[in-house]
Write a structure and sequence with these properties.
Helices cover 30% and strands 27% of the residues. The chain is an alpha+beta fold and 328 residues long.
Amino acid sequence: HVQLLSWDFGEKAVGDGQLQLRTLPLQMESIGMWSSLQRQLNTDFEIEFTGGLMVAENSEQMKFLEEKITAEQKVGVKTSLIDQKQIAGIVPEISDSVIAGSWCEQEGKINPLIATPILAKEALSQGAVIEELTQVLGVSKEAFGYEIITNRGKISAKKLIVAAGGWSSKIFEMLNVAIPIKGAPLQMIVTSPAPQIVNCLMYHAGRHLTLKQAKAGSIIIGGAWPANVSAEGRSEVLPESIEGNLWAAGQTIPGIGDVPVLRTWGAMNIDIDGAPLIGGIPGYNGLTVAATANGYTLGPLMGREVANAALKGYLRSDLKMFSVDRFN
């Protein structure tokens, strides 16, 4: 992702939307880091710069796109308004109801199912220890740093980074720290392999919708549709969200309606204020946080910079607006 999602701009945005706008240069920088990692490790994350398209179906949505484009261009994002004919040239299967779109050549896609295991393997080779199926039951501040109690024993550490996504606030509660990170259970849909009909990353200016198609042909359909959380804390899909998401996808690209759904799943996303949260926690030496809803795009940059913050006590000047100080 490079351009703003529709719910991060204008009246839909949390606050005045400026923090969301200031995140965009970080996203471009982090995408560059993804490409560098791919070259450095001599591997293939299935990164493709296909471009990104946010479509509009009426004059109100078109005006929204025009205002969003103006704001994005001011922070260095190259978005432009294109018409129905230009959209049909990019996505021939597009609905006739689409009249305009916001086009961003810098956007694309990556395959997390391939990239994540490669990075984990590289981390292990450099001395990292990954403890799977290990639940954090308690965290306490000690003279030496921090003690973490898990279902598999205790861990002592001089420094602690909390990068627990939608569960981050639960970790901080164990230290009696209130931090405004909420879990946002969302769900996704994946279709069976289909002929190429989604030729770029896609969004909608007025609906909750994201679309992309994997190399293998499966279409990944999302857009922040809510999932449920069970009593055990597990994310569960909601039939009404499946129906609504598929309807939005079919209205935008009618051919999607002919493609069988392969699977759906719920996962825990993050709700902060539309912007990342990174840096130290006042009063807790050696404790840092890294949290963002746009986690995969921003992953490399957030990882590097929270490591700098933890090891050197240093946070880049352009990142200070994303620290916990903004909530004081």
